[in-house]
Amino acid sequence: MQPDAAPGLTTLDLVQALLDSPPPPPKISEIGRVAEVGDGIAIVTGLARALSDELLEFASGVRGIVFDLEPDRLGVVLLGPSEKLALGEDVRRTDQVVSVPVGPALLGRVVDALGRPNDGKGPVDATVLHPIEAEAPDILHRCAVVRPLATGLKAIDAAVPVGLGQRELIVGDRQTGKTSIAVDTILNQRNTGVICIYCAIGQRGDAVAKVIGAIREGGAMDNSVIIAAGDEDAPGLVFIAPYAAMSIAESFAAKGRDVLVVMDDLTHHAHAYRELSLLLRRPPGREAFPGDIFYVHARLLERAGQFTDAAGGGSITALPVVETQAENLSAYIPTNLISITDGQIYLSPGLVRKNQFPAVDLGVSVSRVGGKAQRRAFREVAGNLRVTLSQFEELEEFARFGTRLDQATRARLARGKAMRAALLQSERDPMPAAEQLAVLVAAMEGLLDDLDKTQTDAAMNAIRATIRTDDHGLEAQITGNRKLADEDRAGIIEAARKAIAERVRADDADA
Question: Which residues contact 275 (CB under 8 A, 6 or more apart)?
Answer without folding.
Answer: 39, 40, 235
